[in-house]
Write a structure and sequence with these properties.
heterodimer, A: 341 residues, mainly alpha, two-stranded antiparallel ribbon, 14 helices, 64% helix, B: 90 residues, 3 helices, 2% strand
């Protein structure tokens, strides 16, 4: 029997090392095949390799499959399998979207199907934990909300993937907060296997390696494959780890960004079909909120209210907002722990 | 730019985050009060009271989400008076 520590180390380092090795080849291959996007926020308008998300997805699948082999409990094997299938469905939808853009309505609808493995396998506990209240038995209501647990976070993460490193850093912060919250609620016992940590480490490993190539100035973009995979992973971890409320609080900036877009464009509109872009560039290549009244106002619009910023500073602003929401998520976990004690 | 120099630009949105969190805790405290309502001994009324508690809790969560949405919408009204030369991008 493999010890929990070895499983944790494998879960983290397999996707991390694989991504670190494969991503340079992926970048070279994409550039050779001219599958590149223009980094429009830079004066030199560099061409950047697209679809780095495929590597995130593949390394997470490999990490999950290895975890299935080394975990001894059949129930744990099945739960890891459910995680793997869910992120794969979301990743494939992202892949289709990268090749042939899906409409803003079809994409969230398709993502509803990614929750099917969780629903069918019944690998969830319909008792979300609230501060002061403790466990709330919701049964039918919980089941009715389950289809959205992948679709909403996946789209929210996708909407924040607009600048070099923005999706990777904010998502990593959320994952770290979930890890701390899980430990606070269920105990930091690393000798016993906690599957929430396995999922978190698989996702963190892949994301950390990806961030290394996606940080400012980016050498690769994630595409929808990457952002939908990461969002789906966060949603799945929330349900399988009984951390729904903690994840909602940690994702406050993501939700605000989605609220901003929805309120300013009055509904779901595909990014490429928006009447105007949310940001524009100043003459010294700083980002500013687009003064066009038709422009959707997202989180970056709020961040830029006090004047233009460089792209990397906008990402730092996102990080500050996510750090605060992560602290609040940890406070939520403490309150939940005190309530259920 | 250093993090500590960027943070003061974000006071309004950081304030909104804290407000959203505190109002969520208030909603949780209210749900706790609702959950404490005594159930009836008869099966029918027990079901009605139980369902009522869930509906009331969800209405409260709905109000919280709507208020959050409304405040975000208020916050995003950008000052349009700045007319810097622009190059439209993503």
């Amino acid at each position: 029997m493999v010890s929990a520590i070895v499983i944790y180390i494998t879960a983290f380092f397999v996707p991390l090392l694989l991504s670190l090795v494969v991503l340079p080849f992926h970048i070279r291959f994409m550039k050779k095949k001219k599958i590149v996007g223009t980094d429009i926020h830079k004066e030199s308008q560099p061409k950047v390799a697209e679809m780095g998300g495929i590597i995130i997805l593949l390394t997470m699948i490999i990490g999950s499959v290895i975890a299935i082999f080394i975990v001894s409990n059949p129930s744990d094997k099945l739960t890891i399998g459910i995680f793997c299938i869910t992120i794969t469905i979301a990743g494939i939808i992202g892949l289709i979207d990268d090749f042939k853009p899906l409409s803003a309505i079809i994409k969230p609808i398709l993502l509803l199907f990614a929750s099917i493995p969780i629903i069918v396998s019944k690998r969830y506990i319909s008792e979300p934990m609230l501060p002061f209240v403790g466990k709330m038995r919701l049964n039918i209501v919980y089941l009715a909300l389950l289809p959205f647990v992948v679709s909403i976070p996946a789209n929210a993460v996708n909407m924040l993937d607009v600048f070099n490193g923005s999706m990777a850093t904010t998502s990593m912060l959320v994952l770290v907060a979930i890890a701390i919250a899980s430990g606070l609620i269920f105990g930091f016992n690393f000798t016993e296997l906690n599957l929430t940590y396995v999922f978190l480490l698989i996702t963190l490993g892949a994301l950390l390696a990806f961030w290394f190539f996606n940080r400012y100035p980016a050498k690769v973009f994630a595409g929808d494959t990457g952002s939908l995979t990461i969002g789906a992973a966060i949603g799945t971890i929330a349900v399988l780890g009984q951390l729904e409320i903690v994840v909602i609080i940690a994702m406050i900036p993501f939700i605000m960004n989605a609220f901003g877009t929805l309120s300013s464009v009055k509904g779901l509109v595909e990014r490429r079909k928006m009447p105007a872009r949310p940001t524009s560039m100043t003459e010294d290549w700083k980002l500013q909120a687009n003064p066009d009244p038709k422009a959707p106002i997202t989180l970056v619009g709020i961040v830029l209210q006090k004047g233009p910023l460089r792209e990397d500073d906008v990402v730092k602003s996102f990080n500050i907002l996510t750090i605060l929401s992560c602290i609040l998520a940890i406070v939520t976990a403490v309150l939940i722990k005190v309530t259920i004690k | 730019m250093k993090y500590y120099k960027i943070a003061p630009r974000l006071t309004r949105i950081l304030g909104l985050e804290i407000f959203v969190f505190v109002s969520f805790l208030a909603i949780c405290a209210l749900i706790n009060l609702i959950a404490g309502i005594q159930n009836d001994s008869t099966t029918f009324w027990n079901f009605i009271i139980g369902a009522g508690k869930v509906v009331l809790s969800f209405i409260l969560v709905g109000i919280w989400l709507s208020f959050w949405y409304y405040l975000t919408k208020k916050l995003i009204k950008v000052k349009k008076e700045e007319n810097l030369p622009v190059k439209t991008t993503d």
